[in-house]
Design goal:
CATH architecture of the largest domain: Beta Barrel
CATH class of the largest domain: Mainly Beta
Number of strands: 13
Family: Belongs to the peptidase S1 family.
Organism: Aquabacter spiritensis
Signal peptide: 1-34
Order of helices and strands: HEHEEEHEEHEEEEEEEH
Largest sheet: 6 strands, antiparallel, barrel
CATH topology of the largest domain: Thrombin, subunit H
Shape: globular
Strand order of the largest sheet: 8-9-10-13-12-11
Pfam family, one: Trypsin
GO molecular function, one term: serine-type endopeptidase activity
Distance between the termini: 36 Å
Structural class: alpha+beta
Strand content: 25-35%
Length: 258
Amino acid sequence: MIASPLSRAGCRLRRATAGLLCAAGLLAASPAAAIVGGGGAPAEVAAHTVMIVSTRGASCTGTVLARDLLLTAAHCVGPKGDYAVALVDRGAPELIPATRVALHPGFDSAQFRTRRPTPDLALVKLAAPLPARFRPAPLALDAALPPRGAGFLVAGYGMSADGDEASAGTLRAVSLASVGTTGGIMVRLSPAAGLAGACTGDSGGPAFQNGRVVGVVGWVTAPNGVRGCGGVTGVTLVGLQRDWIATAARTLGSPIAE
């Protein structure tokens, strides 16, 4: 299996603010498509999900835990750079900068090379609250590994086809089923047939079950384990990491509902 993180490299500018606007602007002008094989995200999913951009020219997806706090993948916000939420669903892009980032202490950025999974999770504190249309997402309470065949709804702002940057920037969702677990901390999701799943830009996006966020998207492969999208989507389970999430949220000044 050749797994890869899903953040996107793109335009790089010297000034931080200009770089954030560049990343957001590229995506805001894109056609309405994201997530391989997916469709429009339900309203309740859209209320919990945002797009994250950076001066590195990368974009990812995040889940709202509080009006000023996001859950995302550690590999999305670990590299040096400035980060912001890009609100692109209502006209010109609006940016809300991030002020602090907390990476899970067990995360190892070399995991994509070593193929040894670690908790690919991070919290992002925002400089200002999100608009009222966004609401905190409830987190899973169950720490048990999901059985094979269990269903998930995965959402993200990424591409609908590997390498097609013009297809990114609109929130989409797709239903996938568990095909196994990895390292006792991740679940692997795949479609029953055809191509479906996360793609570049969907990293950090939520995986839902019964209205609760049960995982965070971290990596993807094409069918047969080769590089690409639409084969298997790797998701870090949050129920196993709930204590860290709650502690880090309090430290950042945005406690979540226990």
